[in-house]
Design goal:
Layout lengths: L19 H5 L3 H33 L5 H45 L3 H4 L6 H31 L1 H48 L1 H6 L3 H53 L5 H42 L24 E8 L9 E8 L3 E6 L6 H8 L7 E6 L2 E2 L5 H6 L1 E4 L10 H6 L8 H10 L3 H5 L17 H15 L3 E5 L7 H15 L3 E5 L3 H6 L2 E6 L2 E6 L1 H7 L1 H11 L8
Parallel strand pairs: 3-8, 3-9, 6-7, 7-8
Antiparallel strand pairs: 1-2, 1-4, 4-5, 9-10
Helix pairs in contact: 2-3, 2-5, 2-9, 3-5, 5-6, 5-9, 6-8, 6-9, 8-9, 13-15, 18-19
């Protein structure tokens, strides 16, 4: 009897979110050390103008300059060392946060539904600068306030002039940086689009070259590049305005202070040593104000990256939240491996359903071939069995239970899948063979599987045998990759084996070996093959004929030849008797 869903369903856990305060608190000791060192550097910088004032006074009074010079050198060295160490600690904190966020986002993306994940990008890299900015801004503000306090002590009139100039400068910069956040989000979107398109073109490069489609690919990439150029130019204009505004504001502040200071010295209200110290403090204030201004712009970029990451992390994962507490169903004895009941599915952006009220069943063991013209819905049906897609209507049962009652990991542990591209991971041959297993296979078991598919000699000739990393410098041919995928299916011991166009790159001899492998699998598993070759169909125990997303008929090969006209036409087209155009 089918397992029933639990009466009490656990509440869905909140999606992971990027919380900057939480991320900054992951390494409190290192962050506190960076803060302390930055404070030391700020205090050393504050001491320098006062020491200059002392040296000027000693020079005027004909006293020894050595003590003041030694103190000033010590303050400068301590400040420089503290600033360097603080920057290094901040960099370590920032890189650590970037690493955690990047791995979190990538892990989440791998668990998103297939229709969702292809269109998304991330901005985790920009978040790394938030750590530095998050500490720089308060320290710069503290430095400005402390410097202004000392400047007030020296001369309040000059300080008032300085504050007025800096206030006007700050208002202008904040107006610019407010627009930078939206621009950063637009740039991230544009970069994501062009990166995805270029990656897709590289994967299809052989087809592009064979079809002389380079101009078409160029045209589409140029359109994406133009969109990126336009939004980047807007960001460049905004970015160029910030240093220009800072330079102009600093120059006005310096001119105003010099004119006011000159007038006050002429009136006898200000001494030369005090004015020299004030100018040094003003020169120290300018970099802190620049840090504040540029920091706000970088902070806006980091916050935009945070928002983008949070948008992706908020997307629900492919697995149901209840999977963690949902019991794994026990397969029902003698129940069909797969049952479709009135299943419909429409791919996003298409008007016609890929499957339209499709109903069929697949026996518990044996070879089932799914046939039909291109666009009949064969591969979509396989994707629904593997729960890579979810039906828009109807129901799918696996091993006697509704597919929705299976925890996703438990469901896929019952299946092996070989796709049309014979996909292998960029990993060692050994790791590729272990995919889908619950336990690790020994070298003897791996060797037997490779011998069964006729690949043992080819793997032995690889530079490092089973430990050779496939995918870049060393790779396999299309037929070899397909046999590697079949060996992987053999090693899983799955109840259901899904094969999408498995004989497309096999010659006659290897196709015969393929049939022997399938026979071996079919004795203990349900093997479902999406096939075009007549030899595969004739060899099948059960054939499902599909067209336009519906099941036309289902039976063995001789029965379908006798009673199903579309099937006869399909077979005749392959034998050359009749030309039937595929849809």
């Amino acid at each position: 009897m089918a397992a029933q869903p639990a009466d009490t369903v656990a509440a869905a856990p909140a999606p992971p979110q990027v919380r900057l305060r939480r991320e900054l608190a992951v390494q409190p000791v290192r962050l506190a050390a960076a803060l302390l060192l930055a404070v030391v550097a700020t205090l050393a910088a504050l001491a320098l103008p006062l020491l200059v004032r002392r040296i000027v006074g000693d020079f005027s009074a004909h006293r020894s300059l050595a003590p003041g010079l030694l103190l000033m050198a010590a303050a400068a060295l301590v400040g420089a060392a503290a600033q360097a160490l603080s920057g290094f600690q901040l960099a370590r904190v920032g890189e650590g946060m970037t690493y955690r966020l990047r791995t979190t986002v990538m892990a989440h993306a791998l668990r998103l539904p297939l229709p969702v994940v292809r269109a998304r990008g991330t901005g985790a890299q920009l978040l790394g600068q938030v750590v530095e900015v998050a500490l720089q801004l308060p320290l710069a503000a503290l430095g400005v306030l402390a410097t202004l306090a000392v400047m007030v002590w020296i001369d309040w009139v000059l300080t008032a002039v300085t504050v007025a100039a800096l206030a006007a400068l700050t208002a202008l910069v904040l107006l610019i940086t407010r627009r930078m956040r939206a621009n950063v989000t637009g740039r991230q979107d544009a970069v994501g689009r062009i990166s995805q398109r270029f990656t897709a073109n590289l994967e299809a490069l052989t087809t592009i070259k064979a079809c002389r489609a380079e101009p078409l690919a160029d045209r589409v990439l140029e359109q994406d590049a133009e969109q990126l150029r336009v939004v980047s130019l807007t960001g460049a204009r905004l970015g160029a305005l910030v240093p220009a505004a800072l330079t102009l504001g600093n120059q006005f502040a310096m001119i105003a202070v010099i004119l006011t200071g000159g007038a006050r010295m002429a009136a006898g209200h200000l001494q030369v040593a005090e004015f020299a110290a004030f100018l040094l403090y003003l020169l120290q204030t300018v970099p802190s104000v620049n840090t504040l201004a540029t920091g706000f712009g970088r902070l806006q970029a980091g916050l935009a990256a945070r928002d983008r990451c949070n948008e992706l992390l908020a997307l629900p994962q492919e697995a149901d939240p209840e999977d963690e507490v949902r019991p794994t169903p026990v397969p029902v004895p003698d129940a069909p491996a797969v049952v479709f009941r009135g299943v419909s599915y429409t791919h996003a952006g298409t008007g016609r359903p890929a499957l339209d009220s499709a109903s069929f069943s697949i026996p518990r063991t044996g070879l089932t071939a799914v046939v039909g013209p291109s666009g009949a819905g064969k591969s979509t049906a396989l994707s629904l069995v593997g729960r890579f897609l979810r039906p828009g209507a109807g129901s799918v049962s696996i091993l006697g239970h509704d597919i929705r009652t299976w925890p996703l990991a438990s469901l896929r542990a019952r299946m092996a899948y070989v796709d049309q591209e014979f996909t292998l991971l960029e990993a060692s041959a050994r790791d590729n063979l272990q995919l889908g297993r619950t336990g690790t296979a020994g070298d003897g078991e791996l060797a037997r599987a490779l011998t069964t598919v006729g690949l043992a000699h080819d793997v032995d000739r690889l530079p490092h045998g089973l430990d050779t990393v496939l995918g870049r410098e060393f790779d396999l041919s299309g037929g070899q990759r397909q046999r590697m995928a079949l060996a992987r299916a053999l090693l899983t011991g799955a109840d259901i084996v899904l094969l999408d166009e498995p004989t497309s790159q096999l010659d006659g001899l290897n196709e015969l070996r393929f049939r022997e492998i399938v026979d071996q699998l079919a004795r203990r598993s349900a093997v479902v093959v999406v096939a075009h070759r007549l030899s595969t169909v004739q060899h099948a125990d059960h054939v499902i004929m599909m067209n336009r997303g519906t099941v036309v008929d289902a039976a063995d090969h001789p029965t379908l030849l006798a009673r199903c006209a579309p099937y006869r036409e399909l077979v005749a087209a392959q034998t050359g008797q009749v030309a039937v155009p595929y849809e």
